[in-house]
Amino acid sequence: MMIELKNIEKYYANKGVKSYILRHVTTSIKQGEFVSIMGPSGAGKSTLLNILGMLEEPTYGEYHFMGEDITAMNERKRIELYRNHIGFVFQAYHLIDEMTVAENIEAPLLYKKIPGAERKSRIADVLDRFNMVAKKDLFPNQLSGGQQQLVGIARALVAQPSIILADEPTGNLQSAQAEQIMDLFKKLNKEENITILQVTHSEKNALYGNRMLTIEDGVVKEDVQIK
Amino acid sequence: MFKLNLKIALRNLWKYKGYTAINILGLSIGLASCILIFIFIRYQLSYDKDYTNGNRIYRVVSSWKYVGASDFFSQGVPRPLAPAMRNDFSQLEKVAAIQQSEGIIKVHPRAGAAEIKVSEDVYYAEPSFFEIFDYQWLFGKPNSALSEPNTVVLSEKTANTYFGDWRKALGNSINFDNKTDFKVAGIFRDNPKNSSFPLKVVFSYASYNDRNSKSWGAVSSGSECYVLLKKGVTVDQLNAPLESFIKKYYVDKGPGKEEHSFQPLSDIHHNADYGNFEGSTTPYKQLIGLGVIGLFLLFTACINFVNLATAQAISRSKEVGVRKVMGSKRTQLIWQFLSETSMITLLALLLACVLTELAIPAMESLLNENSTFSLFGHPIIFVFLLAMLVLVSFLAGLYPAMVMSGFSPVLAIKNKVSAAGAGGVGLRKTLVVVQFAITAILIVSTLVVIQQMSYIRNKSLGFNTESIAMVSLPTDSLSQLKYNSFKEAILGETGVERVSFCNEAPSSLSSREMNFAYNSSKDADFQVNLKFADDEYFKTFGLKLIAGTPLPKSDTLKGFLVNETLLKKLNVVHPNEALGKIIRLNGHKNPILGVVKDFNNTTLREAISPIVIFSSKNNYRRLAIKLEAKGMVATMKAVEKIFNHTFPNDIYRSRFIDDQLKNYYHTEQVMGVLFKVFSGVVIFISFIGLFGLISFVATQRTKEIAIRKVLGASHLELIKMLNSTFLWLVLIANMIAWPIAYVFISKWLSNFEYRISLSAWPFAIAMFISMLITLLTVTLRSYKAANANTIDALKYE
Question: Which residues of B394-413 are buried (b: 16+ CB within 10 A; e: fewer)?
Fold first, then answer.
């Protein structure tokens, strides 16, 4: 099992009043699944993704990632997980503005301490796959939104993660570009068996995946497999 | 990784060009000041370090303790001390007496060269002096060269000037004071500039007339004595023998209690209580003061850096967040930011080196140091530069790096890092307060130093100082016979109003003090300052008599004039009471003829001494010439001509009293200039720092400003709003600065017996200046912000 959540709760206490974001979330995600988290604004989707990505800690509950207890994990272990297993894709792309496309893609490899020659070949490989060889020396602000998001995904992929966490990856994109991105995700999931977890508003995007989790008011309402 | 970080750092610096420029400019000016200060301090600390036995060399110095009066210090010792010490102290390996003197050196004409006639500082030294101090000898041996009378050793450069080439000096001789010929018996290499021993012409001690003096009661500052301790002997072990030594030899009880002490060689350049042959000391206090100012400057520049970096931090929060989720450790981020800081520091340091090079000539001329400073002359300066690089990088970079690397990735990625989270607005405000407090302290200090200096310049000294020249006279008996004809000749010149024979002007740094008795057979418990003068002295210098008559026309002692301070010290209330009372002084017994109104007889740092004035032809050293203000230059030319005609064997030397007085305060003048320069630098650094900060605040508050404008705020109201925070900070800074500045300044002023009373003005002006600067900076920048297009600001997000 890749991810196991047991009774995850998240709330903020303010003057004795608890405002819940997540309640009793219990679920598990297997290697190779493509899960879409759906739900209205403020339902707690992003918080759930942040908890899964270890960017936030749950107030209560158990979280096992590849069999390891996250809540008891120290900073160093977590950084190891980031380096080796998790890739993030953001709605606002979050490329580093001062770095070129190639450098942005290279950054996670540097943290993984991958030797220079291999870095070069991996970057070349990814650029080639994403048809962006010509753009490798451009800066993010010289690219369109869709292209920036492609770089964002390339950056997440280059470190060969076992799971990609994507927070509304197409939220800022036009539909044609969005389709391209979603096709890419589906392909990665099918061909490379990468686990993908995306938060989305759009049912159309959700249908690219093979499982749909619907969250409302912090509670999992529906959990359906898509054929 | 490092290469990439470097690249990113450069791109970031380029992206925020304005802030980078501010940072580098402020930092480099601060660094340049620090480097200059360091070069100066290093030079001062390098004095007298070149002797092999340096740590075993001590100078014997003298002091007298008086009841109810301040102690008196002298670098000299009684002449019989050196032989006595050689005899009594088994702990000393060598003892050497050295006597300073001055006179006219003549080098006889040689083939192809005219006669050389120069006035020179000369020394008489025992052979052991050169065994204590290891000079490099080009010719001759220290112990043999100076063992006989009428021999002289010359420094290489001196020998070159006298004889064209030092090799030609060997076996030749030079004439001193038109009396004795001295044979050149040795040549030694010149001391470096940073030496307290400017030896050029050294005669053998055996040729010194007073070498066998038995007088333990007289001390001249020119008679110094150096000792070399035996190996393994500490200076503390000498205390007990020294005490019995003093008891043994000082049998006549004077008013002061004689004491001697061993002064380490390393202290000679830094102890202002005692002088030295070179005639300059820089007390450690001054060096520390400069060092503190340097730190202040560096600190202010670093504050700019921290302020701007933390302000900028928000815009870089996203990068931090992204890097963190990619697996960057916090330490990696810290190093990344630190390397950026070091890069800025490095750039600033390079610029600072350029600035330093540009400023070095100005510093040389300001300090009047007879030496060259250089940036690359000493490896230690490089070490210092490197240390500065590391120190500044950490001082300025560590805090922002800690803050930025500590951002929570979730907030960072969502662009929700607030100004408060980025290092705290409070911290930035505190730093601004510190910066402006330092600025205010320096402004106040500068104002007070300027005020005090102008007070000193303009204070009436109680006598006339304008257009009076002092011409030095030869003092041998043959020349003394010509004094009167010389005087008549000078008086015959047009443009000369009055002339007077005397030993010194009313105010002078050199003084002679002596025991005396007033109306009793017992010596008074303090000494008097002696001034020798003829009957014209009073009129020439415009001194005022408050009782009795002036000096009569006479070459010998007929009676004394005393000053008010003397009577006050003797508890004589009415000046008229003192008239006719007998003063016994140096074997003379004569009545008091008159009382002179107090005048300042030395620098205004010191109080007026008790003074007696009387005639004594044998003690006249100078002719004071009061000139008409018009055509002074021409008159002095004529005076020189008459002098050279009357005293063909002597050398004409003259000096205006004004210049002499100005010279008293050379240190203070230098300090005044330094204060002006450094407070200018600090004001500039604070100014650009504030400008950077307000630019940032304005950008950050663009949206708020836009909303307020939509709600109907006027430009003026917006500018006022932005101003008010900063003005408060500056006000608080001034409040903090005042007491600190007050303590510093009153301490400095207490060096002066005559000083301005501290008023509130410098403090008020400092506040006014810093407020004005703030107002200007903030208004300048916030006007732009207030004028920005509202729609652009609100369109974001």
Answer: bbbbebbbebbbebbbbebb
| Any A CB within 8 A of B512 CB | no
The verdict on residue A194 lying in a domain is: yes
Residue A25 lies in a domain: no
Rounded CA gap, A145 and A168, in Å? 13
Reported as a pLDDT band with limits 50, 70 and 90, residue A29 is very high
Task: Tell me whether B508 touches chain A (CB under 8 Å).
Answer: no
Contacts of A51 (CB under 8 A, 6+ apart): A8, A10, A22, A57, A58, A63
Number of domains in chain A: 1
Better-predicted residue by pLDDT, A147 or B114: A147
The string of pLDDT tens digits covering residues B769-780 is: 888 888 888 888
CB A52 within 8 A of CB A37: no
Residues of chain B with pLDDT under 70: 1, 68-70, 253-255, 368-372, 414-425, 703, 707, 709-712, 789-797
For residue B797, give the chain A residue with the closest CA.
Answer: A92
Which residues does chain B have within 8 Å of residue A56's beta carbon, measured at their own beta carbons?
A: 410
As for the ipTM of the complex, it is: 0.71
The predicted pLDDT at position B796 comes to 42
CATH of the domain at A92: 3.40.50.300
What pTM was computed for the model?
0.78
Whether residue A41 is contained in a domain is answered as: yes
Q: Cβ neighbours of residue B530 under 8 Å, at least 6 residues apart?
A: B503, B511, B512, B513, B514, B585, B611, B612, B614
Q: How many CB atoms lie within 10 A of CB B44?
A: 21
Distance between A111 CA and the closest CA of chain B, angstroms: 6
In a domain, A206, yes or no: yes
Among A81, A90, A94, most B C-beta atoms within 10 A, so best to mutate, is A94
Domain housing A207: 33-59+74-225
Asked if residue A163 has pLDDT above 90, the reply is yes
What confidence score (pLDDT) does residue B797 get?
Answer: 37
